[in-house]
């Protein structure tokens, strides 16, 4: 099957910056897995560096860098005026020798470009939003910083696609509230690289006292402030916060300073440690060094951090929402607490840190859960079946 994956953001594979991360990493892994299954896969992304070649062959698939807008990095809001140009380029490209049988848009910008490109064809469109503006606005409130056009454009996009892929049951519900029929929403959670994330291997150096690890960007929406407040109920333990800018830049980072000041006011300055950005290929050593991984974002569509921690055999304590609520089985692979309930968060962390047998059992169950339900092979298989279904719907019935 010929599959076109469209992401109107920056390049997935980036010269000096190392491997892709976040959404780009997800798309790259999907492409690799589909190519390994024998499909002809091509990724289309916006060219943001004039020195990058127009095409590149990577891990069995091809990357096309689309000349849409200036060849520099742009914020999401700055990409909106270039969506039509991106879509026109795709339509011209697919009018030649290679034409996809199915197009899969990623994030709302990529979905808009894909829908524009195929609007005069019979090519079906599958869409993964990765996050939804209306959901982020509800959970983040004043901390939501998405462009004003995002929410109405996402709603319009739901009417232009054949099927939407949700990464959690909460996202399924949200998409149906936006007007999609339940039969037009498929739940396909993201996968985990179990060759990189597993229990056996090196662990980052640590102190003797118990370690709680939090992973996520340094923004108010990631809930590290809740964790610092909860530490007052935990006792003598270390909270390590990984994420944000490199460690050398933390001193000048507003949110890092705010968190450190919060820890000082709570009398926890010697228990809270910010380590800055950690390369993704080194994250497994940090997960293995922790007794518990705490996931307290205000919004989480895929629950990636919880899955990576579980794959490393570490129990998770997190807010019962989004992908976290699906990934973590309460009292089996970790503990789920009501979002924003700092007291229950602190009590749950303290009890788990003092329960060696419980952490051991949770960790083993966590590894089994990831390997049985959250591998990239399983994700690619589900997408493959989904593509076959939408293609068969669009094909004309022969007499």
TrEMBL record:
The keyword Nucleotide-binding does not apply. Its EC number is 2.4.-.-. GO terms for biological process: carbohydrate derivative biosynthetic process. The keyword Glycosyltransferase applies. Keywords: Glycosyltransferase, Transferase. GO terms for molecular function: glycosyltransferase activity. It comes from the Bacteria. It is an enzyme of class 2 (transferase). InterPro entries: Glyco_trans_1, Glyco_trans_4-like_N, Glycosyltransferase_grp1. Residues 22-195 form the Glycosyltransferase subfamily 4-like N-terminal domain. Residues 205-357 form the Glycosyl transferase family domain. PANTHER family: SULFOQUINOVOSYL TRANSFERASE SQD2. This is Glycosyltransferase. The lineage of its organism: Bacteria, Bacillati, Actinomycetota, Actinomycetes, Micromonosporales.
């Amino acid at each position: 099957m010929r599959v076109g994956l469209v992401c109107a953001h920056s390049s997935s594979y980036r010269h000096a910056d190392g491997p892709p991360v976040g959404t780009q990493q997800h798309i790259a892994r999907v492409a690799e897995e589909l190519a390994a299954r024998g499909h002809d896969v091509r990724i289309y992304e916006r060219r943001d560096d004039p020195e990058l070649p127009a095409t590149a062959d990577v891990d069995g698939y091809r990357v096309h860098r689309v000349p849409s807008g200036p060849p520099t990095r742009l914020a999401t809001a700055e990409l909106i005026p270039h969506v039509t140009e991106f879509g026109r380029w795709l339509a011209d490209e697919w009018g030649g020798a290679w034409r996809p049988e199915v197009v899969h848009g990623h994030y709302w910008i990529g979905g808009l470009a894909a829908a524009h490109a195929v609007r005069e064809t019979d090519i079906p469109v599958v869409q993964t939003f990765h996050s939804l503006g209306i959901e982020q606005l509800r959970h983040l409130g004043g901390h939501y910083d998405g462009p004003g056009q995002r929410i109405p454009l996402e709603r319009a996009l739901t009417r232009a696609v054949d099927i939407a892929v949700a990464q959690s049951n909460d996202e399924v519900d949200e998409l149906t509230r936006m007007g999609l029929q339940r039969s037009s929403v498929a739940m396909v959670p993201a996968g985990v690289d179990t060759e990189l994330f597993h229990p056996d291997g090196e662990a980052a150096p640590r102190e003797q006292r118990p370690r709680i690890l939090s992973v996520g960007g340094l923004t108010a929406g990631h809930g590290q402030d809740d964790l610092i407040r909860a530490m007052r109920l935990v006792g003598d333990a270390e909270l390590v916060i990984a994420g944000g800018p490199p460690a050398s830049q933390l001193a000048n980072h507003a949110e890092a300073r705010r968190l450190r000041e919060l820890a000082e006011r709570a009398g926890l300055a010697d228990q809270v440690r910010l380590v800055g950005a950690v390369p993704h290929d080194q994250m497994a050593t940090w997960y293995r060094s922790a007794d518990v991984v705490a996931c307290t974002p205000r919004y989480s569509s895929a629950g990636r951090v919880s899955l990576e921690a579980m794959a490393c055999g570490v129990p998770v304590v997190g807010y019962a929402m989004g992908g976290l609520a699906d990934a973590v089985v309460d009292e089996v692979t970790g503990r789920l607490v009501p979002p924003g309930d700092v007291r229950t968060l602190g009590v749950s962390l303290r009890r788990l840190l003092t329960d060696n047998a419980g952490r051991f059992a949770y960790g083993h169950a966590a590894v089994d859960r990831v390997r049985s339900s959250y591998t990239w092979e399983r994700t690619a298989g589900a997408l493959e079946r989904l593509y076959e279904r939408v293609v068969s719907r669009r094909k004309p019935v022969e007499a």
